[in-house]
Amino acid sequence: MVSTTRYIVLSAGAVAFCFLVLLNVGGYRYGVSDQAFYIPIVRQGLEPGLFPHDAPLLAVQNRLLAFDDWFAPLVRISGQSLPAAFFAAYVAGLALFYGAAVLLGRSLYRTWWGVATLTAAMTLRHRIPDTAVNSLEAYMHPRQLSFSIGLLAVGLFLRGRTAGAAWAVAAACLFHPTTALWFVILLGAAALVAHPAARRPLLLVASAVLPAALVLLASAMRNHLNVMSPAWTALLESKDYLLATHWPMMTWFANLGLAVVIVAAYDYRRSLGITAPRENGLVAGCMALLALFLVSVPLASVGVALVVQLQFSRIFWLLDVVAIAYAAWFVVESPLGLRGKAPHGDETREAAGGRRGARERVRRAAFALVVLASLARGSYVTLVERADHALIEIDLPASEWTEVMQWAGQRPVGTNFLADPGHAWRYGSSVRAASGRDVYLESVKDIGIAIYSRAMAERVSSRLAELGDFAALEAAHAQWLAKRHDLDFLITEHDIALPQVHRRGRIAVYDLRDEERMALRDSPTDRD
Asked: Which of 18, 38, 163, 220 has the greatest number of C-beta atoms within 10 Å?
């Protein structure tokens, strides 16, 4: 009966957790932000040969990812649409995150009120300063799935299941390898410190992996050890999170403050005699990550490509969760303010009962306050900041841009579009993600991909320079770009002296093809 009741309560907690997350992220949306990359690579897996113009660009970031290799076949087998599959993966990620938070809480806390408070605190979405990472996202991101599985591995490790933690971290690599890498380091250091039986296997694995990694760096990845050129670093200036030397003092204070919280809370718990060897290992792993970040700062500042590409600052995402777990324990279960003399006789037993009642009231109040804070913040985000969005948008929202993208998606594979380089943030989705067709430039995501390749950085830089001010684009310049880059159509809001083939509201599509290229492309036009 107890186990059944607990199962029901945990299931209800999962539903409440997902609801509060949706409120705090402003609702689920498809096709936004980093999905400008992940949707196209999955579509490539479903339709080989897609993006013939942009495939080299997409391959630069995708070459070390396995996500699309297994997710695309899974979508095909399931028979679900891609938007439905992404939403299902998003919900699964939230469920994993909830389960990981519960397991972490059960490992560090003594009461279920502490566990409940921790899971509620995890719904409070926030940005990890100057890391380009949010604690929660409004869309399906493999990084979030990898993080959830990695956090589950931490909980398994703290519960004494080292082998299960190792398998979980290995699974996290299938979603997002760089995120999983931080958990490998965290748990590897933790196991070396806290699990003597694991030291020999870990050292054997390390002795086998390290030479292989060195060979890989010296051969296939040797270019990643080069120092970035001035032109390359200039292109990446908009990605200010890449270099900690560019952080303002408040960012340093906030991120290093996470380590201070962890060390202070751990030291206090140790003084109470309630820490365990595996918790010692967890804190040691956090400090190992911090040390690794500090070593990376000067290397990134001089532009060592691999160090910049690994984005070491994202280790603070892991420290953030551990700090939240300790902060929740401090509020809910810390004996500060609730200490008293040891009970003696009937009167002292009554006093002890009163203290226990006071503790219970504090725990309930803490949980209620965190839930109310999450509910209040989430309601504001959803009902005020994101009032024009539904709570759940499984597919692209109905808009003029979406209708134009539906038309674009009906053009033959290989059709190449020219659009405002900022179209993804301006309209909510990119040409590649929304239509499955190539585009000359999508500045936000293309610059992000350029982090991983000097050649792609040169491509993006040259295209930005050749295009110039898109708002001032004239017909002759658009036609010159079309001949140079095999472009077929221009999508814009401003009138231009070219044949218009499609329009939805303020957004028009113009034909850039000359007679020879029109003959090669047997694509229908849709004149209004």
From this structure: 38
Those residues whose C-beta lies under 8 Å from the C-beta of residue 438, and which sit 6 or more positions away, are 51, 52, 53, 54, 414, 415, 416, 417, 431, 432
Give me 98's structure tokens: 């909830």
CB-count exposure of residue 255 (10 Å: 0-12, 13-18, 19+): buried
Taking residue 76's Cβ as centre, other Cβ atoms within 10 Å add up to: 12
What totals of helices (H) and strands (E) does the chain contain, helices first?
23, 7
Reference 418, options 476, 496, 499, 482; nearest CA is 482
How buried is 124 (Cβ within 10 angstroms: 0-12 exposed, 13-18 middle, 19+ buried)? middle
For residue 2, the model assigns a pLDDT of: 53
Amino acid at 232: W
Q: What is the pLDDT of residue 53?
A: 95
Half-sphere exposure of 383 toward its Cβ, with a 13 Å CA cutoff? 6
Q: Helix, strand or coil for residue 468?
A: coil
Q: How far is CA 55 from the centre of its chain?
A: 23
What is this structure's pTM? 0.91
What pLDDT score was predicted for residue 39? 96
Place of tokens 């399906």: 140
Structure tokens at 237: 């200036």
d(CA 188, CA 2): 36
Sign of the CA dihedral with 33 first, then 38, 42, and 43 last: positive
Please list, residue by residue across 362-375, b when 16 or more beta carbons sit within 10 angstroms of its beta carbon and e when fewer do: bbeebbeebbeebb
Number of neighbouring beta carbons within 10 Å of residue 398: 9
| Per-residue confidence (pLDDT) for residue 353, from 0 to 100 | 59
Give the helix, strand, coil percentages of the chain, each rounded to 5.
Answer: 70, 5, 25
Regions in the chain scoring below 50 on pLDDT: 337-345, 347, 523-528
Tell me the pairing of strands 416-418 and 127-128: unpaired
pLDDT value at position 200? 76
Q: Are strands 489-492 and 507-511 parallel, antiparallel or unpaired?
A: antiparallel
Instruction: For 309, list phi and psi in degrees, rounded to 5.
Output: -65, -35
Q: What is the 3-state secondary structure (H, E, C) of 193-256?
A: HHCHHHHHHHHHHHHHHHHHHHHHHHCCCHHHHCECCHHHHHHHHHCHHHCHHHCCHHHHHHHH
DSSP element (H, E) containing 501? strand 500-504
CA gap 107, 66 in Å, rounded = 31
Q: What gap in Å lies between CA 278 and CA 291, rounded to an integer? A: 20
Instruction: Compute CA distances 180 → 243, 366, 421, whole Å.
Output: 21, 32, 32
